[in-house]
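Hi, here's the filled form for the chain we discussed.

Project: internal
Contact: R.S.
Residues: 284
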Amino acid sequence: MEYLDQLLGYEIVEGTTVGDVFTVQFLVDVAGQVMLASIILIVGFFLAGFFRRRIIRLAERSRHFDKTMGSFLANVVRYGILALTIIFVLQNFGFQTASLVALLGAAGLAIGLALQGVLSGVASGVMLVIFRPIKVGDFVEVNGVMGTVKDISIFNTELATLDNVQIIMPNTSVWSNTITNYSVYDKRRAEWVFGVAYGANLAEAERIIRDTILNDPRSLDDPEPFIQVNNLGDFSVDFLVRVWVAAPEYFKYQADMKRQVKEAFDAGGIEIPFPTRTVLNVSE
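And the returned structure, exactly as it came back:
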């Protein structure tokens, strides 16, 4: 017992067996390992959350750092720190992490072969973040769906449609299809076709169209507007009108001009023809 006293560093009470001594020592060791593992987990989760919030905050404040890239990197850093935390916890309990990493690698290969579609989605998400054909806040049309980009995660892209409906689209569908991004350029060209009757004064009709559209402050002078007769249809002489406008104003501007030109035609006595059909009652 004196030897055990010296070996363990504390006094052993009389009547205590060797088995009891080693049981107590085992429990003390386990308790220490559990306490240290708990500390590692707490610190790891704290650091993962801290760095994620920090990266997102920096992305929001920086003019040269895209928010989409910031969110993606923040999640990568978070999961990386959590993975390291788990490895440290396992090492604390005596696991051979080298063998564990090799085992996880083999399991990852098998899972990767089974989940090729999921990994393809991850790869597409990485490509979207790196090359940035779209970013959060852009108004886009992808695979026949039109909406505002709300989020780009590792697997999915979230859109909000014009009527504020959430659309979750796999990144593979986004990356592999044609993307129409309406938010890249600051100007868009609005286009209309206005038809007038063959008997109408074409010069007067053109003047009314030009004055109505160019008097609107949203119409841009550069590039120069285009207003010309474009087609001689079955029922009308058609004017093709193309005017540039600031991109955020496009949809409302295009609708407003249709109504204003129609009202100006009515006020100026310019007839807008429409197809008519005459039914004759032929009696025998």
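Let me know if anything looks off before we file it.
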